[in-house]
Specification:
Elements lengths: L4 H37 L4 H16 L5 H17 L1
Length: 84
């Protein structure tokens, strides 16, 4: 535990930011996993891809993932849908 007051405040603000980001990041990951599982089962469709792309876009907008990662993820999922 830090001793300096500003360091203590930084720890507190980091905890608050982490608590705010964690459910958002979890929702993003869950959407991607749900799509990948559906694609593996052969039940993935365009509507599910659209929902997943929306979740990826939200994560990118909120700064949870970078722009190139969002683009790469959406591209991989679209390719996965096209191959099935």
């Amino acid at each position: 535990m830090p001793i300096i007051e500003s360091s203590i405040q930084r720890v507190r603000s980091n905890e608050v930011a982490h608590a705010r980001r964690q459910p958002q990041k979890s929702a993003y990951r869950a959407a991607v996993k749900k799509f990948e599982k559906a694609a593996a089962a052969g039940t993935a469709d365009q509507a599910l891809l659209q929902v997943t792309s929306s979740a990826i876009d939200k994560a990118e907008t909120k700064g949870l993932i970078k722009k190139n990662k969002a683009s790469r993820d959406k591209s991989r999922l679209a390719k996965l849908l096209a191959s099935k």
